[in-house]
UniProtKB/TrEMBL annotation:
<dbReference type="GO" id="GO:0051287">
    <property type="term" value="F:NAD binding"/>
</dbReference>
<keyword id="KW-0028">Amino-acid biosynthesis</keyword>
<dbReference type="GO" id="GO:0003942">
    <property type="term" value="F:N-acetyl-gamma-glutamyl-phosphate reductase activity"/>
</dbReference>
<comment type="similarity">
    <text>Belongs to the NAGSA dehydrogenase family. Type 1 subfamily.</text>
</comment>
<comment type="function">
    <text>Catalyzes the NADPH-dependent reduction of N-acetyl-5-glutamyl phosphate to yield N-acetyl-L-glutamate 5-semialdehyde.</text>
</comment>
<dbReference type="GO" id="GO:0006526">
    <property type="term" value="P:L-arginine biosynthetic process"/>
</dbReference>
<keyword id="KW-0560">Oxidoreductase</keyword>
<dbReference type="GO" id="GO:0005737">
    <property type="term" value="C:cytoplasm"/>
</dbReference>
<protein>
    <recommendedName>
        <fullName>N-acetyl-gamma-glutamyl-phosphate reductase</fullName>
        <ecNumber>1.2.1.38</ecNumber>
    </recommendedName>
</protein>
<dbReference type="Pfam" id="PF01118">
    <property type="entry name" value="Semialdhyde_dh"/>
</dbReference>
<keyword id="KW-0521">NADP</keyword>
<dbReference type="InterPro" id="IPR000534">
    <property type="entry name" value="Semialdehyde_DH_NAD-bd"/>
</dbReference>
<dbReference type="Pfam" id="PF22698">
    <property type="entry name" value="Semialdhyde_dhC_1"/>
</dbReference>
<dbReference type="InterPro" id="IPR050085">
    <property type="entry name" value="AGPR"/>
</dbReference>
<keyword id="KW-0963">Cytoplasm</keyword>
<dbReference type="GO" id="GO:0070401">
    <property type="term" value="F:NADP+ binding"/>
</dbReference>
<keyword id="KW-0055">Arginine biosynthesis</keyword>
Length: 352
């Protein structure tokens, strides 16, 4: 009798859904038994993503066709758009309350319902579920995640900034009002839907900022930085679009507090992450390239001294589809299902 856990993916035809399939195919403790994609219902996963053609996978079905009372999933990944997710997960957990959920949308990341309404343009429609959601950045909330039923997988930009900055804020090592985050994302961060501005000829050989002054991920940054600092923190954050498929690359500018040097900040991060399998702190003065983490669940962080006394430059990079989304989701799954945290996601980066 198989002892593998039964897993489903809602929204399997998007980039994060496909990345989940890629990672879970080699996971020794789970069976993929449900893949949904409403517009692709009835199709084989190999028809939507030809790289999966050699593998035996469930046929894609619509969410409405799933009988949650009988399917018996141990855990479901939700890779649906925000707002849609609230309605779907209310139904899933009402009919199958023992099912664990890792939600890759933004719907349950913000603890403040008013903040959600402000940044997403509508009221939150699943407030009871929101109250039990745990923010799914493992390195920060590991203990809470292990006991959770609903995990809100963090955003890719936010993970890349929170991992280097939260330890420094908790240590009171940096000034809270002088943080600048200059961030860049690969094209897959914009999703798989057909959009004119995402055509090859529109983005190739170019580079641009977007969401300037009002990107939705700012709400997550405000929330997590303020909790770490014990007071309100509002940072400058500007995202940019890169003409490459994968990756988040953040250059972060900070000032040391009470005489803390760049080397002091580096030491805080080394101590914080020395036993973490998916965060690597480079030697002082060294900075990473986005290609160093491509296809892996790693975050690479470097710290260098600025020429301005008291200031430091932190460079952080991760793959937006792995540690920034699906890899982190599997890391969360491993925790809540009692597996080794690195199981199925310990592959090194793809290079070149």
């Amino acid at each position: 009798m198989s002892t593998k856990k039964k897993i489903g993916i809602l929204g399997a035809s998007g980039y994060t859904g496909a990345e989940l399939v890629r990672l879970l195919l080699r996971h020794p403790k789970v069976d993929l038994v449900l893949l949904t994609a409403d517009r692709r219902a009835g199709q084989a996963m190999g028809d939507v993503f030809p790289q999966f053609a050699p593998y035996e996978l469930p046929t894609l079905v619509s969410i409405d066709s799933v009988d949650w009372t009988t399917i018996g999933l141990d855990l479901v990944f939700c890779a649906l758009p925000h707002a849609t997710t609230q309605k779907v997960l209310q139904e899933v957990l009402a009919k199958a309350p023992e099912t664990k959920v890792v939600d890759l949308s933004a719907d349950f990341r913000l603890e403040d319902a008013a903040a959600y309404a402000k940044w997403y343009g509508h009221e939150h429609h699943a407030l009871e579920l929101q109250k039990e959601a745990v923010y799914g950045l493992v390195e920060i909330y590991r203990r809470d995640i292990k006991k959770a039923r609903l995990i809100a997988n963090p955003g890719c930009y936010t993970s890349c900034a929170i991992l280097p900055l939260v330890p420094l804020l908790k240590a009171r090592a940096i000034e809270t009002d002088e943080i600048v985050i200059d961030a860049k994302s690969g094209m897959t961060g914009a999703g798989r839907s057909a959009k004119e501005e995402m055509l090859f000829s529109e983005v190739s050989e170019g580079f641009n900022a977007y969401g300037v002054g009002h990107h939705r991920h700012m709400a997550e940054l405000d929330q997590e930085f303020s909790k770490a600092a014990g007071k309100e923190v509002v940072v400058s954050f500007t995202p940019h679009l890169l003409p490459q498929n994968r990756g988040i690359f953040s250059t972060i500018y900070v000032r040391g507090r009470r005489g803390k040097t760049a080397q002091d900040l580096h030491e805080v991060l080394v101590k914080q992450y020395e036993k973490e399998p998916f965060v690597h702190i480079l030697p002082f003065g060294k900075t990473p390239h986005s290609r160093h983490v491509r296809g892996s669940n790693m975050t690479f962080i470097g710290v260098a001294a600025d020429r301005i006394p008291g200031r430091a430059i932190i460079v952080s990079t991760l793959d937006n589809l792995t540690k920034g989304a699906s890899g982190q989701a599997v890391q969360n799954m491993n925790l809540v299902l009692g597996f080794a945290e690195t199981l199925g996601i310990d592959q090194p980066a793809m290079f070149p």
